[in-house]
Amino acid sequence: MKILTCPLNGPRNIAEFTYGGQVKPMPNPTEATDQEWAHYVFYGDNHIGVVREWWMHTPSSYWFIVERHNQTDEVMRTYDPAELFDPGASPATEPVEADS
Amino acid sequence: MPSLNLDPAGLPILAGLWHLDGATARHDAVAWGYAKGATQRGVELHQLTEVTGVDIEAGRVTGVQTNRGKVSCGCVVQAVSGLSAEVSRMAGFQLPIVAYPLQAMVTQPVKPFLDPHVSSSALHCYVHQTSRGEIVIGGGSDPYPLYGTRSTLELKEGLIASAVEMFPFMSEMRLMRQWAGITDMTSDYSPIMGLSPVENYYLDAGWGTWGFKATPICGVTMAEVVASGGKVPDLIAPFSLDRFDAFRQVNEMGATAASH
User: Fold this and answer.
1) Are A47 and B244 an interchain contact pair (Cβ–Cβ within 8 Å)?
2) Less CB within 10 Å around the terminal CB: N or C of chain A?
3) Does B167 fall in a domain?
4) A&B contacts, CB < 8 Å
5) How far apart are the first and last CA of chain A?
6) What CATH code would you report for A3-83?
């Protein structure tokens, strides 16, 4: 059984989690062109290496960030999104670039 | 249907679809058949040759770098299945593709009992028996992206639970072999065929879990693209890469059917 450590609920069976896609900066929806928005919706890196992703602990509906190697499936780190996003900011805010 | 449980997982079977013209084919035999036919017609196949780079000059591809040297070219058709996004990076552009593993497994061989391929869209599981007697079990892709091809216990547990619901006697059987392949999934579950941002670099990618069935027509049509110097036939025009920029996704009915 694979175990993923939820920052809120601790180590849990991976079957309790839902994958939510790559973390990527969202363009401002009121200012972005259709093409910029399409690129945000459809394109991602999909590059072999360590990726930063959204995951949800499904029973508690808690969303958090996972840093994972997408070839070995090794999880480097899991943490609350407050580390990347200012909780008081508008949804169009870009994530704070940590050491990448 | 002999041995089929008509009340699998508390989801009684009320009706079924019988595809009269449906069939299965031995995929490795088909692949070797194509390889043999192509080489007899003068095509060179280089096994164990990894693409390591793509040479682009003024928006045109001029050659492909490999671990065994450079191949100069007049054009390139990129048809690399699971690694489409990685190879397109070498050519300098992104693809709207995410790589997911697709896993399957076979049991030890038993006497023939199952002729058709049986698929449950409710359980996301299919079962068929090969000419060697093995029972093939498969279903949907993994729940999250991965470039690894190692089989997982989670998927085996889930798939086998569904297969045993469909054919309860299979609980007495042993698994013999398991495997995973990387599939390149697009958001509309349809392939990307035709032109790319590089002028003479053509794409045949994003086939996800169902490329095998379309291989013959796909080969002929991509050959037309090459022979005409990049004129895209009407047949594949809806599958162009730029459909995503225009929010013109393909409305593929098969995409709602989960498993094959």
Assistant:
1) no
2) C
3) yes
4) 56
5) 30
6) 3.30.2270.10
